[in-house]
Amino acid sequence: MAENAKYFAGLDIGGTTVKTVLIDESGDLAGEMVEVRSHVKDGYVATFGQLELALDQLTSTIGISRDQVRGIGMDVPAPSSDGVIWAQANLAADWVGTNIRDLFSRRLEGVPVYMTNDGNAAALGEYAVRKKHHGGLLLVAPGTGLGGGLVLPGGRAYEGQNGLALEVGHVSVPHREETGELPRCSCGLTGCLEAWVSLVALRRRVGVELAKPENAGHLLNDASTLEEKAFRLRDFAKAGDSLAVSIFRQQARILGYGLADLVRVFDPGLVVIGGGLAETTGFRDQYLEWVMEGFKERAWPVYLRSPIEPEKETTQFEWATGGDSSAALGVAFSAREMFG
Prior knowledge:
The chain has 8 helices and 12 strands. The two termini are 18 Å apart. It has 340 residues and is α/β, with parallel strands linked by helices. It has 2 domains: 7-130 and 324-339, 2-Layer Sandwich (Nucleotidyltransferase, domain 5), CATH 3.30.420.40; 137-320, 2-Layer Sandwich (Nucleotidyltransferase, domain 5). Strand 9 and strand 10 form a beta hairpin. Helix 3 (118-129) packs across helix 8 (326-339), helix 4 (199-210) crosses helix 5 (226-238) and helix 4 (199-210) packs antiparallel against helix 6 (242-266). 35% of the residues lie in helices and 17% in strands.
């Protein structure tokens, strides 16, 4: 490795692990992803030690010195603005109100640091792996909650004035429970998209459906906990089980319905669906068809096909392809663009 070569690191700080990658000046991956424990519950100083550990492992593996890392991108699993954490989320209390970006930069003797949230980072990663795509990109990622991010044409994440933009899980949708009530979201409000499209929502729906007398003999009732029932639901859906299929179809259609409004606002041209379903084979094609059902129910025709060129799709849908390293790659590429 040339001694004057420059590298850029991406640090994806999760609740359990930190995933770390290096890229060179050309944007090529240097070595393999390194993963270490995050220690976020032990405070930001303890986590800084893990970030440095990951950087040392990365640089030593490819035979470069740490001072050849000329810029760092990091993402945090919490709202932040201009480097300052705004809410605790799954972090220790000492993160809140702290300028994590500047403190870590000083700890590394002035190496510049770019920081964003995990949803933006994942969207940036999906943009980075699509080297031939230069338009916008909207990411939605159903997981425990429903995260998301928007990348503008050219590769810059849209974060909003205060870094709080693209809380896609908390847009309102008009769908109600069978009782007529709007479901309560983890944020404390009712009627949020996340209250229908998330692992938490899936558990709720499984509980509601299995409590019905007609489903008393369903095999999912053999599972000991609600969490286990929800975990097994996807396998049942892949096998064509009518109850599991109906639950996933409802979720996917509501996701598509909500996406129609997001597309109407942002017109990204490309919508990428991430989360655990993106890693599934044999089921996600059907899921995407259901998403499109909901999208078509709500979207204006111009967001499906161009009225000038009818064969041209105005909004494309794809599954996420970046895998576990997506968010780390996203912030690494942002660091390269900003500090290269």
